[in-house]
UniProtKB/TrEMBL annotation:
It comes from the Bacteria. Keywords: DNA-binding. Residues 35-54 bind DNA. Residues 183-202 are annotated as: Disordered. The keyword DNA-binding applies. This is TetR/AcrR family transcriptional regulator. InterPro entries: Homeodomain-like_sf, HTH-type_TetR-like_transc_reg, HTH_TetR, Tet_transcr_reg_TetR-rel_C_sf, TetR_C_16. The keyword Cell membrane does not apply.
Length: 202
């Protein structure tokens, strides 16, 4: 199949489809189980075309696990109220295959069997380091990691483990329960070391 005529699509469209299929597969299947042949079959192209475009499975995975656009959108706006915006945004993402929660996918892929250590670290940095760069005050990296842990834990409970209460909550109600815990890490500490949330009687 030629690059220009594969599935009657342009080369850029075919590349996008391959990357999209790979991302969806990695969000639900271990790294070692997602091979070039599986990706090609699900994308409706030949394995040789996948290799032509990406050269190797590792290069394909690097492009498929680039969530920078999703995280840029997720972290847009002021830090004040950011936790609630994040929780509500993630809560309304459809279940796969229609949608992929980027934090949930990041956790699953980062912990996937066989994933190279360098790629695992790069995945986590996409969200955590970006979030840390937005925070004022000391220990920004540690606070960003704790915030990410809370968000990812909520995502796992809601989508992966399908916890009955969390899974049934509407976005606003879910944010009422989780966002204050996350926002407490995003707000800068007071001089006495307490968080903004603690000043409000917590």
């Amino acid at each position: 199949m030629s690059e220009a005529t594969d599935d009657s699509g342009r080369a850029s469209d075919v590349r996008f489809r391959i990357v999209d299929v790979t991302r969806r597969l990695l969000a639900w299947a271990p790294y070692n189980d997602v091979g070039i042949r599986l990706v090609a079959r699900e994308a409706g192209v030949s394995p040789s075309l996948v290799m032509k475009y990406f050269g190797s499975k590792e290069n394909l995975v690097i492009q498929a696990t680039d969530f920078s656009d999703e995280f840029t959108e997720l972290l847009a706006g002021p830090v004040d109220g950011l936790a609630r915006r994040i929780v509500e945004s993630l809560a309304v993402i459809p279940e796969a295959p229609e949608g992929t929660d980027p934090l949930g996918a990041l956790l699953f892929i980062a912990g996937s069997r066989g994933l190279p250590v360098e790629l695992r670290h790069a995945l986590l940095d996409q969200f955590v380091s970006r979030l840390a760069g937005l925070l004022e005050g000391p220990d920004a990296q540690a606070r960003a990691e704790v915030a990410c842990a809370i968000l990812v834990g909520g995502s796992v409970m809601r989508r992966t483990l399908q916890a009955p209460v969390l899974g049934a909550l509407e976005a606003a109600s879910l944010a009422d329960r989780i966002a204050p815990l996350v926002q407490a890490q995003l707000d800068p500490p007071h001089d006495d070391g307490s968080r903004t949330a603690q000043r409000n009687g917590e």
